[in-house]
Amino acid sequence: MLYPETFDVIVVGGGHAGTEAALASARMGCRTLLLTHNIETLGQMSCNPSIGGIGKGHLVKEVDALGGAMAIATDEGGIQFRILNGSKGPAVRATRAQADRILYKAAIRRRLENQPNLTLFQQAVDDLIVEGDRVTGAVTQVGIRFTARAVVLTAGTFLDGRIHVGLNNYQAGRAGDPPAISLSARLKELKLPQGRLKTGTPPRLDGRTIDFSKCEEQGGDLDPVPVFSFMGRADMHPAQMPCWVTHTNERTHEIIRSGFDRSPMFTGKIEGVGPRYCPSVEDKVNRFADKESHQIFLEPEGLSTNEYYPNGISTSLPFDIQYQLVRSMAGLEHAHILRPGYAIEYDYFDPRSLKSNFETRSIEGLFFAGQINGTTGYEEAAAQGLFAGINAALKCRGDSPWLPGRDEAYLGVLVDDLITKGVTEPYRMFTSRAEFRLQLREDNADLRLTEAGRKLGLVDDVRWDSFSRKRDAVSRETQRLASVWVNPRNLPAAESERVLGKAIEHEYNLGDLLRRPDVDYSALMSLAGGVYANPEISREHLGELLEPVIEQIDIAAKYSGYIDRQRDEVERSAHYENLKLPDDLDYSQVTALSFEVRQKLNKHRPETLGMASRISGVTPAAVSLLLVHLKKTR
Ligand code: FAD
Predict the structure, then answer these.
(1) What are phi and psi for residue 407, nearest 5 degrees?
(2) Which of 37, 66, 317, 630 is a Cys-bridge partner for 453, taking CB atoms 3.0 to 4.6 Å apart?
(3) Alpha carbon of 157 to ligand 1 centroid (Å)
(4) Is 38 annotated as a binding residue?
(5) CB 215 within 8 A of CB 330
(6) Rounded to the nearest whole angstrom, what is the distance from the C-alpha of residue 49 to the centroid of ligand 1?
(7) Are 230 and 66 in contact (CB under 8 A)?
(8) Which residue's alpha carbon is nearest to atom 21 within ligand 1?
């Protein structure tokens, strides 16, 4: 049957990428259809019940600054919040939350069900409708044909998915969900370059059978309790729960080693490469053979369940080994496994075959986002989904793509890394991937992106009003601080010693004083009985925005010197960053370049010189030679 209504954008898959893609496209006014296997699993966390962390939290804040759902759903479903790296510089500080997976899913579903312009439909997609080199729709398992001008594919770990537990294996998308076999075959037929990756998950435990008195308690931050969304409030969190810590020991490691001969990883049953940064416990014991113990976090899965997620023992060893290894740890001697751990292998597509807007180069209108692009993690998926949803909507509107730079957002770093470098293992975000990380902080994600989001049509009036008040207050106060001068005549020495540590010797403006590492805004405003304080920077005027405004003024002052230096670097590299490389450039003719570099450039065909510079093996010297060649020939 041909479905009577036609859509602008169809999103296939209701995971973290698909839900953000569908919401973004619909917010931008496009008639959007979200097709997914099962409406009950919208926003499901396949693995750990937590959101954020270093690099990942940065992405979540950016998704939020663009009006996305992940951060606010975490605020509504979060049961433990922490600021990681709290004592380090603001650039590497990151928010991490444990989520009640049921409440999280409900928060996502509520947003999807109430989003204007968005239609949900439950059914597996088995085929794409492709006319010439254009996608025009998708066909479901029972033959319903939905048509659209763009299709965003976010099938996660489901394409030709195969679960492994020991030497047993079977086809599945993740435990309890069907795989996407027909769609995988169709994509192979379309000759989109693909490979296999794998990821794994630990067994889940029944909390009633855990002896928590033998574990260390780890609570969240309570003063204050952090929030994820710029629109979030701590009173949205349902309750706070502790996590617990136990450890593997020599006995655990012996048990694990005794299962190596039945491990699908070590016996070659699994071919796909797994995430190096999230290794299975057997991988850890094998690679770090001299380590006597590994820390295991017991994380609650929610308020209404006894289920616990033992973070650190992801495994695909046979079940009898899983059973023994769990019971070898303190507090887990009698633990009952509710669900076995497993590894899953699945198809991914080489992201270097995508354009910079995530549209496939070979099929117009077909966009890929999420784990299908070789990444791992909910946050990476959500950020890509939002990006693909925006660009699919822009394409339908006939507008140019939206492409944030590497100096504007982690989202820009993520997209650029994927399309230029591709992946050799599941890609996850780290702050070290961003060369401009001093300016890409969690705290200023809104100041970096919300205006762009508003222009794109992603940001509603409530968020825009709140953001505008914050931005304007920060900007007015920063200007005021630069215009208020103190000198040894009008500032008594005792006062200056109290706040600044020593008497000032000549005239300074307040902005200069705030740049000093040990002077913060509140202390500065207490100078001389508060005569320099601004009554507009008060709870009465700013309400909940007060702390974020003060934080921003403080951080901007402390970082301004470093950021200026970094900005110079950005500007210096910008002159070649965006220089377009001609589509018809035959790199094999650029004989000044080494054979390897010519081969790489011909293979990846970067769109700009900046993208070329980030292909592994393309050195700064090669980039200079390419520049010389372009100047000579064009
Ligand atoms: P998914 O969340 O997988 O969502 C895909 C969605 O598409 C699902 O709703 C599915 O039903 C739907 N779908 C697929 N095919 C079709 C079709 N043909 N028709 C209709 N609907 C379809 N991440 C980490 O960061 N750390 C980890 O340790 C980790 N371990 C993991 C372990 C396992 C076993 C699994 C399965 C995942 C793990 N992940 C881990 C990855 C994390 O779950 C993913 O990165 C994230 O969920 C990807 O989001 P996504 O939206 O791309 O795909």
Answers:
(1) -90, -5
(2) 66
(3) 5
(4) no
(5) yes
(6) 13
(7) no
(8) 36
Under a CB-based contact definition with an 8 Å cutoff, are residues 453 and 464 in contact? no
How far, rounded to the nearest angstrom, does the alpha carbon of residue 581 sit from its chain's CA centroid? 29
Site to probe by mutation for ligand 1, drawn from 12, 141, 278, 376 as the one with most ligand atoms within 8 Å of Cβ, is 376
Quick one: pLDDT at residue 501? 87
Per-residue pLDDT of 222-267, as tens digits, reads: 988 999 999 999 999 999 999 999 999 999 999 999 999 999 989 9
Q: Which residue in this structure is represented by tokens 């959007």?
A: 32
DSSP 174: B
Summarize pLDDT for 188-204 with one digit per residue, the tens. Answer: 999 999 999 999 999 99
- Confirm whether residue 280 is marked as ligand binding: yes
As for ligand 1, residues whose beta carbon falls within 6 Å of it are 12-18, 35-37, 41, 46-48, 124-125, 154-158, 173-174, 177, 180, 183, 199-201, 278, 314, 344, 370-371, 376-378, 381
The pTM (predicted TM-score) of the whole model is: 0.91
Residue of 295, 296, 392 whose CA lies nearest to 21: 392
Measured CA to CA, the distance from residue 428 to residue 443 in angstroms comes to 21
Contact 395, 149 (CB under 8 A): yes
Q: Which residues of the chain have pLDDT under 50?
A: none
Given this model, what pLDDT does residue 594 score?
87
What's residue 275's pLDDT?
Answer: 80
Tens digits of residue pLDDT in 384-437 = 999 999 999 999 999 999 999 988 999 999 999 999 889 988 999 988 788 788
CA distances 435 to 217, 409, 430, Å, are 37, 11, 11
Q: Which residues contact 631 (CB under 8 A, 6 or more apart)?
A: none
ipTM above threshold 0.85: yes
User: What pLDDT, on a 0 to 100 scale, did the predictor assign at position 162?
Assistant: 97
> Looking at the DSSP assignment, which residues form a beta bridge with residue 131?
134
585/602 Cα distance (integer angstroms): 9
287 annotated among ligand-binding-site residues = yes
Which pLDDT score, from 0 to 100, does residue 424 have? 84
pLDDT of 572 reads 66
Phi, psi of 290 (to 5 degrees): -85, -5
Residue 374 counted as an annotated binding residue: no
Question: What pLDDT score does 432 carry?
Answer: 78
Question: What's the pLDDT score for residue 169?
Answer: 96
3-state secondary structure of 164: strand
User: What is the whole-number distance in angstroms between the Cα of residue 100 and the centre of ligand 1?
Assistant: 18
- End-to-end Cα separation, the chain, in angstroms: 53
Sheet of 94-99: strand order equals 50-52, 94-99, 78-84
Pairing status of strand 162-165 against strand 168-171: antiparallel
